[in-house]
Design a protein that fits this description.
This protein has a domain of 229 residues: Hypothetical protein af1432. Helix content is 41%, strand content 10%. The chain contains 15 helices and 12 strands. Strands 10-9-7-6-11 form a 5-stranded antiparallel beta sheet, with no helix packed on it. The radius of gyration is 25 Å and the shape is elongated.
Length: 456
Amino acid sequence: MAGLLGQYGLSPVTIKETSTFADRDIPRLRHSLHDAPMAENRISLDRLVPGVFVRLELDWHEHDFLNANFVIQNQGQIEELRRLGVTEIAYDPKRSTSRPLPAKAAAPAPAAPAGPREDPLARARRERKLKDRRHRIQRSEEGYRRSMDRVKHLMTHLGSQGPESVREAGELVNESVDAMLADQESVLHLMSTTAKAENLYFHALNVMVLSLILGRKAGLNSEQMRQLGLGALFHDVGKARIPYAVCNKETPLTRAEEDFFRQHPSYGVEMAAQMGLNDPGAVAVIRQHHEHLDGSGYPRGLKTDAITVPARIVAIVNAYDELCNQRDAERSSTPHEALSQLYRKKGNWYDDRLLAQFVQVMGVYPPGTIAVLSNERIGMVLATENNQRCLRPPMILYDPDVPKESAPILEPGDDPDIVVVQTLRPLQLSEEVFDYLNPQTRLSYYFDAGNRNRPA
């Protein structure tokens, strides 16, 4: 993945894969991050200079700083502390790049701030952006729940009401395609999911949504998008003919079981005909979504041009979702790891161009990625936007001083100097951070296409 990361100006050295961490490193990691106590050194405010790492002793709603622990960047921030009535502050010498002024040489407070400070208009704009972000997440959650209800209904009635299920699926796909094509700046959000026994429905909707996002990026027209969406939604319908014990076996399949399982694309084509799904593009997706460009896939061992573009798209998305959502959550890859694993198969299994576009739409750090930032904060990626900010996605941040219901959100443009330095698995988090960020065992995504009037 180093080559692709290089396109975005990120050195592979910058990213420390979670696989480099041994279990013995986890306690050290937890202690070294922001939930570790800060050394208690106190100074009067008139000794404070840029470069000193400080800890605010104000409640989160009493100040407008993004973090409670941070390095003083300029005189304007010192003036803001003075305006808040702070006369003495805790600081950490080990995290500071400058020393406080000696007590006897303390400089008088300047009459005016020497550096920038957030004016009321800027503060109102930031608060409006935060409110808008939370509203968009809520809107996506509502759309996701409605779509999931529709998917569950049509999937559970395939046998008795096949043609009706196909009609309902077509309506869902058409609405999704129309929304995505009408707003090229739609946002992909991480969804909160709770049910565990309905992985088939989660998987079907996830693959449909991500496939349409990638199809739009690849330049598919509206008719191709509809074929792609319908095929993606029904791509695994043939598994209904595979015994549950085989589909959900915890141990490796026997050779006979593997051969049986590999027939599910063919069974899916037969079931599609019985349901009245006769769209050639959608049926090709069902038949070919496990084929590989080098001929190593199944059921037919097709190569390169014999595999349709929509089927190539679903092959990438299906593999990504399966890597991130193993039945045993401890075996699941992080979103960042899943992209790396797919990228190692580029050119052999997966289409180079489509895979690069998938990384562009998901971001190098897809929603659900847990990361350590360069300012030692821990956060989780909430969304990815259709722009060039894939290295600085919006993140919810862990802050023990702020209730998790009002957790701070770091937007891409808040601080260009803050970057991801390390990705983590959920099990590497302390209990407090885990409960706060609440990483999902099932990663599901949905889009919000209502962003034309976003505040600047």
